[in-house]
Amino acid sequence: xxxxxxxxxxxxxxxxxxxxxxxxxxxxxxxxxxxxxxxxxxxxxxxxxxxxxxxxxxxxxxxxxxxxxxxxxxxxxxxxxxxxxxxxxxxxxxxxxxxxxxxxxx
Length: 106
Known about the structure:
Order of helices and strands: HEHEHEEH
Oligomer: single chain
Number of helices: 4
Shape: globular
Strand order of the largest sheet: 2-1-3-4
Radius of gyration: 12 Å
Number of strands: 4
Strand content: 15-25%
Structural class: alpha+beta
């Protein structure tokens, strides 16, 4: 599991071309909601080592977040072979995240 949101986001075309299970997490390192989501995220991610995790710093003018119409942080987007399967916004419980992971990690 990634710990820090990184400002360098891959282009949308690269994300769309990904194979397998991927979790895109949009947020910011200073965001209180993002910090509150980390313990349940860590709990839910346990045992999902095959899921690629991108922790993307988001904000105005950030093209990847805008292409997914991210409005609130954190937003977790669950992808299977580059296609969005599920989305969770501002999760506070591990079971919300686990439900998304179960849809992409078989």
